[in-house]
Every structure is written in C-alpha cells, then in structure tokens.
Amino acid sequence: MESKIEELKKIAEEKIKNIQNSQELQDLKVQLLGKKSEISNLLKGLGALSPEERPKVGALVNKARTEIEEKIEKAEKKIKEKMLEEKIQKETIDITLPGTKIQRGSKHPVNRVIEEIEDLFVSMGYDVISGPELETDEYCFERLNLPQGHPARDMQDSFYITNEYLLRTQTSAVQARAMVANTEKTPIRMICAGKTYRREDDATHSHQFGQVEGLVIDKKERNVSLADLKGTLEIFVKKLIGKNCELRFRPSYFPFTEPSYEVDVSCFKCGGKGCSLCKQTGWIEVLGAGIVHPNVLKMNGYDPEKFGGFAFGTGLERLAMFKYGIPDMRYLYTNDIRFLSQFDRKDEE
After folding, report:
1. Distances (CA, A) of 348 to 24, 98, 228, 318
2. Whole-number Cα distances in Å, 270 to 95, 283, 307
3. Same domain for 305 and 175?
4. Which of 132-146, 162-176, 195-209, 312-326 has the lowest mean pLDDT?
5. Of the residues 55, 90, 125, which one is the last residue of a structural domain?
6. What is the CATH number of the domain that holds 200?
7. Fewest Cβ atoms closer than 10 Å to its Cβ: which of 28, 116, 184, 332?
8. How far is CA 14 from CA 2, 17, 187, in A?
9. Which strand (E) or helix (H) includes residue 117?
C-alpha cells in the first residue's frame, strides 16, 4: 500500500511539472483529488482493511493528499506570476509617445450669460436669489395678480403635478416669495435666474427654457420710477449685448405690472438698418418690464400707498443668442462639442 501511495505522489508531481496554464491545472486537480481520483478511491477502501492497518494507511493517504495540494498551489502561484509578467510585457507603455489630446468643450453659453448677469447686478447692489422649480399655484399665479380663470393663464400652459403644485412657468414666483419673506419691509433689489417650464407643442418653442427676473421695491419717498427702470435696463443691455445697442420701450400688458412695457433693442446684426433677423424693422424684442402692480404689492404684504418699484424679465437663451450671434436656439440643447468649444475664444474676442 505504501509503495502504491508513493507511486501516486511521483506521478502527480510529474504531471504538475508539465502544466502550462491555469485551465490545465484545474483539470489536473480534479483528476488527482476529485471524487473519482485514485486518492479518493484509497480513502473509500479503508473500510476493507483490518483495524490495525486502517489508521496507518489513512494517515499516509491524507499526507499524500496534502502534499499534492501544496504542489498544486505552488504551481498555480507560479502560473499566475507568469501570466502577470506576460501581461506586463504586452501592455508596456512607451512614455516617449505624444499624448492623445482629449476633446473638450467650454462653459455653456447660457451659464456664461447667467454668471455675467449676476456679476453685473451684484456690482449694482442687487441680491441673487433662487427659488423652487416645483411651485405652488398661489406663488406662480395668484400672488402675481393672476387669479383662477384669468385669461393670461392661457399663455402659460403648465405642467401640473397635483391640483396645487406645478413646474413653475416663470421665475416671477421668486419675486413674490422674496416680498413675503421680507417681513421687515427693507428695500428689495434682487434678481433670479433659473429654469422655467411650459407645455409647448410647436417646433419654435421648448418645454424648458431659462429666465432671469429682476425686482426693486422701496418706499415711495425714494421715488423708484420708470426712469430708474430705463437706466437699469440700459446698463444691463449695453453691458451684455454691446455698448452700441439702443433701447425702445413700447406699451404692453402684463398682469403683475402697471404700466407695462415691451423693451426692444436695436438689431445687433444690422445695427438697426433692417435685416432678416429683425424682420426689416431694425428692432428685436428682448425684455418685458414695468412698474409693480399695486395688487401684487398688496397681496405680498406691502402697502401700495407707501411702497413702489419696478420689475423686469427676459429669456436667457435669447440673450445668449444675441450675445454670441447664435442663429438657431436648438444649438443650445444639442451638446455638440464642436459648438460648445467656441465660447472661450468668443469671450476673449
């Protein structure tokens, strides 16, 4: 029996030496130590031996099994080291080769416009305020003089989440929140830039777009007037679009301001002479503005006899298009790196 065990060990050692890869080693492990191997058969045959021989033979078989397992583990470790060495050799990096240039874009033009607007108004003493995009009907409409059934609501077809909550259709809701939060009735000079949402079905509009709103509220003895609004907007437009731009105020209607104005700027493309961009008029509509409506002041905690102010709002995408000469709004949403890589250079110009 002892000679047979020794012979098994020698045969196993020879086979292990000739192994070339891990798969062959696994197959050999099953052959040498599996349920149908010679070692297993010897252990199964211990019951046929006499009580005196059984412990001795059992110990020899187990010792042989342990030695074979150790040799297999050493062989497995050696194969893994060999495989790693081969992999390292194959994947050697030549550090003298030139690096691969990674394409990159630049800051999105709408984000550039937001940052420029915020920097400008902060320098003029305004606060930058944000508000929730999931808004209540109360703040989005009612506190802005747009009660239930008001016809102006039809122009702001909305995404309602519940009967009370909707995705805000305008950043003007933040103006109402700022007035309500200002319990001490200190002067307000604020802007808010952010996303707004409306249900749009045609090809010329997007269901999501950016707006920036501005609000100034102060005591009436300080005489915050239309002249202040006009001067503020002139600084805003000339800084953002170009110092040669001219402004034109046209009477209009907004529920939250009275009087209300549409504000046009002279066409940046033709300089006001008339072209296809401005539809031969020389002017492009940019902003909506006006003096804050007394009802808005009253509903948000201000006495319209003692307080007054002005508000304005415009689309961020439109400003980005004017500033950078972008002919199609859809370019702003495609994330095409060829388009986005231009704006570092444009700002340097």
Report:
1. 65, 29, 32, 21
2. 53, 10, 41
3. yes
4. 195-209
5. 90
6. 3.30.930.10
7. 184
8. 19, 5, 93
9. helix 109-123
Residue 23 within any structural domain of the chain: yes
**End-to-end Cα, the chain, rounded Å:** 94
Is pLDDT at 335 greater than 90 in this prediction? no
Beta bridge partners of residue 265, listed in sequence order: 247, 284
What tens digit of pLDDT does each residue of 149-182 get?
777 676 677 788 998 899 998 899 999 999 999 9
Examine the domain organization and report whether 226 and 128 are in the same domain: yes
The tens digit of pLDDT for each residue in 284-293 reads 888 999 999 9
Torsions phi, psi for 209 (to 5 deg): -155, 165
Domain that holds residue 161: 109-348
CA distance 179 to 187: 10
Specify the residue for token string 């034109």: 248
How many distinct structural domains can be found in the chain?
2
If asked whether residues 157 and 256 sit together in one domain, one would say yes
Question: What does DSSP say about strands 188-197 and 127-128: parallel, antiparallel, or unpaired?
Answer: parallel
**261 touches 233 (CB < 8 A):** no
Two tokens, residue 294: 């007394």
Answer with the residue of higher pLDDT: 14 or 128: 128
Q: What is the DSSP letter of 344?
A: H
Integer-rounded Cα radius of gyration of the chain? 40
